[in-house]
Amino acid sequence: MYLDLLRHPPDWIGHLPARTPIVVLAILMLRARLRTFAESGDGLFLRSSGRWVSGMTLAGLAYTLAARMAVSAAGAGLMLPLMSDATGWSFGAGAALAVSAGLMGFAWTLIRDATERRWQGARRVLAVYGLRAAFIAAWVPVAGWGMRGGEPVAAAAFIAALALACVGLAWRRSMRAGTFAQELEAEHRAYGDNVGWVLMDTEQAKRPPAGRRPWVLRKPGPLLKRRDEPARIAELWLRAMLRDAEQVRTLLQFALLGIAAIWLSPVWLGAIAWAGLCALLLLWLNGLWGRWETERYMALYDWSEALRTDGREIGRSLLLRPIGLAWCAILGLHAGWLYGGPWWTAALLLPAAGYPLLGRINRAATALLGTGREGRSKSDAGDIDRSGGVE
């Protein structure tokens, strides 16, 4: 397939910007983490040996550098032949791009490791995303300038300076080994990022507890003013949801994807997209609730079906309404941006109209999903009765 694509490239490839390979390589490099090769068994006696720790640290640094270089070479080797007409880069320029991208990725892993050791919680997340944006904003124009070929000496000097910076960061990291818990956490996260997509549905992909405070709901206290039993059950689910960093990240990504889909569509299509996105979000939240109910300790609670249904409806609304209203506001702002004048009031009117509409959608989903569960339970009971009659 790749050879056929190389012999007969589509027309749209020639219209891509020349910096496209640089941006793609930057995204690939900025997803990396530093490997430390720390194992929980090392805490018995090997972690007290400085020689052992330094050996593992150097092995992790060497592995990370080799992996970044391999990924960069593979990405550049696949993209640059396809975009040779659009970029006009020579083989030497492509090799220089691959080397500089690999070094940049190695430097990123060291800076990210230092950042994650220094900060916790929301500050860590904001710092990592801010550093990602700064790396892309700095490296893409510099690499694009170097790939023009006008200043080969300056480009070579930049790669040499980047290599020296990597050596300095690696030496600093080897001299500043963190605690055993930090080494284990860094290794588990790096390994999970490497193989988690392969073991997504297996027990091996579940990361062990990181041993740190969550970056949402850091202080105890009630979240809802209502203290009746359904609201308290919904609060339990919401706390479990917001304390899971992966679920929070997925929720934010879905919300941002919805914002982009609504903003980039015409107003009428954005309204249709809003309804579809709200339906998808509602079904996803309902599935998360069902999974939470069947967890080891939550399944021990003997709640009535009415309490479960009311708590499920309240819990879904706690996340459905804020995200759905944010999408309504984006739709109104997009209408005002396109048409101006009185259309700007849609940014206020649409959320006001969407609040009761989302409540109706949530209640309708409760009735619909409840009917489906009752039908399945009746069919299961009928199967049990028939099997008993046969025996």
UniProtKB/TrEMBL annotation:
<feature type="transmembrane region" description="Helical">
    <location>
        <begin position="271"/>
        <end position="289"/>
    </location>
</feature>
<feature type="transmembrane region" description="Helical">
    <location>
        <begin position="12"/>
        <end position="31"/>
    </location>
</feature>
<dbReference type="Pfam" id="PF05975">
    <property type="entry name" value="EcsB"/>
</dbReference>
<feature type="transmembrane region" description="Helical">
    <location>
        <begin position="91"/>
        <end position="111"/>
    </location>
</feature>
<keyword id="KW-0472">Membrane</keyword>
<feature type="transmembrane region" description="Helical">
    <location>
        <begin position="248"/>
        <end position="265"/>
    </location>
</feature>
<dbReference type="GO" id="GO:0016020">
    <property type="term" value="C:membrane"/>
</dbReference>
<feature type="transmembrane region" description="Helical">
    <location>
        <begin position="153"/>
        <end position="171"/>
    </location>
</feature>
<keyword id="KW-1133">Transmembrane helix</keyword>
<keyword id="KW-0812">Transmembrane</keyword>
<protein>
    <submittedName>
        <fullName>ABC transporter permease</fullName>
    </submittedName>
</protein>
<feature type="transmembrane region" description="Helical">
    <location>
        <begin position="126"/>
        <end position="147"/>
    </location>
</feature>
<dbReference type="InterPro" id="IPR010288">
    <property type="entry name" value="EcsB_ABC"/>
</dbReference>
<feature type="transmembrane region" description="Helical">
    <location>
        <begin position="52"/>
        <end position="71"/>
    </location>
</feature>
<feature type="transmembrane region" description="Helical">
    <location>
        <begin position="318"/>
        <end position="337"/>
    </location>
</feature>
